[in-house]
Task: structure prediction
Amino acid sequence: MPWKLQEAERQFSELVRRAVDEGPQVVTRDGREVVVVVPAEEYERLTEERDEAPGFKEFLLSGPSFDDLDIRRDKTPTRIVEFDE
Result:
């Protein structure tokens, strides 16, 4: 059940209790979701997973090495292209 911001402000203790007992609680403002209240343990779990995941650079560097591959480009033309003048 999404909480309207004003309702969440008035019933903050209830919002926190439900987040702990029932799981994440969505708060809306002007009909749009703006925040999600989650228990501290869930927040820690989510941020730990993000911290453990490699960044984009580390991801690319962790790929296979191509140093041992014998890669040569064939320089012969694949087709002849004629242009009209």
